[in-house]
Amino acid sequence: MWRVMETPLNCAEEQQPPPAFPASWSTVTPQESPADRNDKGNAVGFVLVHAGAGYHSESKAKEYKHVCKRACQRAVDRLKAGALAVDAVTAALVELEDSPFTNAGMGSNLNLSGEIECDASIMDGKSLRYGAVGAVSGINNPVLVANRLLSEAQKGKLSAGRIPPCFLVGRGAHDWAVNHGIPPCPSEKMATKFSLSAYKRNKHKMELAEKVDTGFNHHSKKRRQASETENGSGLLDTVGAIVVDREGNVAAAVSSGGLAMKHPGRVGQAAHHGCGCWAENTSTLNPYSTAVSTSGCGEHLIRTMLARECSSAMQCEDAHQALLEAMQNKFISSPFLASEDCVLGGVIVLRCCRCSDAQPSPDIQAILGKSL
Hints:
10 helices, four-stranded antiparallel sheet, alpha+beta, hydrolase, protease, Taspase1
């Protein structure tokens, strides 16, 4: 999983070198400039994005880093313009979905029928509202639909006292999006040469695997396991982002084309509440604001509700240790996944709190951010 951070700084002493991260992570700390501050000289927020857990071709490493940086910049630009966290995180996801190299929106994995069906969700830590779409076709930016569902729900009940939807799937999600001004995109135009090529390879592997099953032996078992490995963990790449705005609000979002060769209609963790993402502002019950975005095997993440579990763990004083224990006890060794040979997943998390000695202020200057 790639991690790219954009952290506009506001203090002169923030000139220390950034912390060291493993080689597979990328950190960006922009140079201080007037554009990174508001009129009072305060920082505008914090953005963290990822392009997904799983195997990413080394030959495309530069492209993945570039798209993550662009996603961060899109979100930072929105924060500079005064946008709240939920709008900034949406902007980051749109950039990730528009890239042909990510498994979200444009260039998503094709299902068994050779079609693209996408999942996405977003959560606003301020209102605690959530919006999501699942198995939706013909929409290039499913996160826009999820965000619109969230914002429409904030307007209150529909005619005749009907409750507005927060989660739509399939054709109903597509039609609702179009009716609310989100432009459709023919599925064939969302497929790229990379996704089409992968579909052909995976289809061929499935055909071979089916032949292997009819003449099962020790040698063919190894071949089938190799095929499953190539077609499984290598393509678990839900994209996501988490954001803190200048007021200290947090938001999180995820988007995915799902597993390659999935059954039509399958909905992964990217659309499920508490599984794909989570965001919650500080309150009388929670001393910290938290935001989480997950990636991995959707079925594993759904059965463990990993995003919400990680958020709860980060309310502990020793957040790092609590998060490690949550990953071990609530996911890796979870009784809900006891029948699995191996579990596949990853998270980016963030927590922040108001400094106890800070003067009351709505600005991010009075916020401490900590990413784990």
